Amino acid sequence: MSESTGSALPLEKTARLFHYFGGTIYADRSPLYMNLALRVAEDSELLRLAASVEEKAALPNLFFAAVHLLLLKGEHHQLAAFYPSLNNSSKHYDYVYPYFRSFVLEHQEKIHETMMTHSVQTNEVGRCAVLVPAFELVAAQTKRQPLTMIEIGSSAGLTLLWDKYHYRYGEGLECGEPNSPVKIDCSLRGETHPPIPRRLPKVGSRTGIDLSPIDVNDAENVQWLRALVWPDNQKRARQLEPAIRLVEQAPPRIITGNALDLLPNLIDKVPGKAPLCIYHSFTLTLVSKEPREKLHSLLTTASKKRDLFLVSMEWAANSVTPLLGLAKFSYSVRTERILARCHSHGEWLEWMND
Asked: Where would I find the H helices in 204-351?
């Protein structure tokens, strides 16, 4: 009796998580993963495998990426026919689950090992299209001086190179490097246009912080980045490859460690008159309230000596969409506003702030 009670709770929690991802995160974004997540949520055997690493963030993403990784590495199975990343003529997703289940049960040990040794570090370059208008506001408030950029949760550093990409927002609105191999399209919603700059703000320096940075010169790491892209999101996959090549050519500085430990020293080293912009995208969405409060407290303390800005793109618990936010810290006072609603991968942007 006590044994079954001990295993039931994590399975229930894991089932709720897969239900949530299937109905909210994957809905309208990945028909394949939406179908799979809702079926896994009802499958105690597969839930048990997923729950074996339950403490991991974004567990459904991790579980599905572990499967995707094996397929990308060449594991032969009929399941591959349903993955657009492997087979452009994929079959209807309504029929995929028996093949998915069969593959998972045949490769339980490898999937478990991958989940234990990896984490979800999606480096989605499409999000840069959402961040750019916020960076433009920071530049406008700092006399367009070159910005000192510090990113929390940099993964492979692809979003650190946001000023090396070209952006198209529709209606003739474009900015960025016209000859960049990375082309990012973001549609605009609503009546208010965001502040799309004619020229991107200048970057004076860029530094990333990550608990476990991904080295794109390691083939295994690059394959994991590919596996994290949802198989039926081929636009994201096409944006990923040239961004990886840019990072290979000019790797940005990424420091290994916890941002709460490293930020005070990094901030102290920034020249007093240099505009400082700290940013993060889908780094704090899944953490508890405490690290967020510690980050804001740390920045409030730092602002006694200098002004600084914080740009955030996260999915708040009480919001139906991710939100783009901008906070200014000055003389220990934080002024914060929500700028926009957005798509989690930067597909669209709805500006809320006039």
From this structure: 219-228, 234-249, 259-268, 289-302
Question: Which two tokens mark 46?
Answer: 């597969």
Return the domain boundaries, the chain: 2-117, 125-216+225-351
* Cα 206-208-213 angle, rounded to 5 deg: 140
Q: Are 121 and 156 in contact (CB under 8 A)?
A: yes
> Could you tell me the fold of the domain covering 125-216+225-351?
Rossmann fold (3.40.50)
> When comparing pLDDT for 354 and 14, which is higher?
14
Share of the chain residues as helix, strand and coil, in percent rounded to the nearest 5: 45, 20, 35
Element (H, E) at 341: strand 333-342
pLDDT in tens, 56-96: 778 999 999 999 999 999 999 999 999 999 987 666 788 99
**Mean of per-residue pLDDT scores for the chain:** 91
The secondary element (H helix, E strand) that includes residue 337 is strand 333-342
- Given the structure tokens 């039926």, which residue do they identify? 232
pLDDT in tens, 324-335: 999 999 999 999
Phi, psi (rounded to 5 degrees) for 217: -85, -5
pTM of the model: 0.90
Q: How far apart are CA 215 and CA 255, in angstroms?
A: 12
Question: Residue 208 carries which side chain, given as an amino acid letter?
Answer: G
Token couple for 233: 């999101």
| Distance separating alpha carbons of residues 131 and 141, to the nearest angstrom | 16
Contacts (Cβ under 8 Å, ≥6 apart) of 291: 260, 284
pLDDT at 88: 72
Hey, is 218 helix, strand or coil? coil
- CA dist., res. 230 & res. 234, Å (int): 8
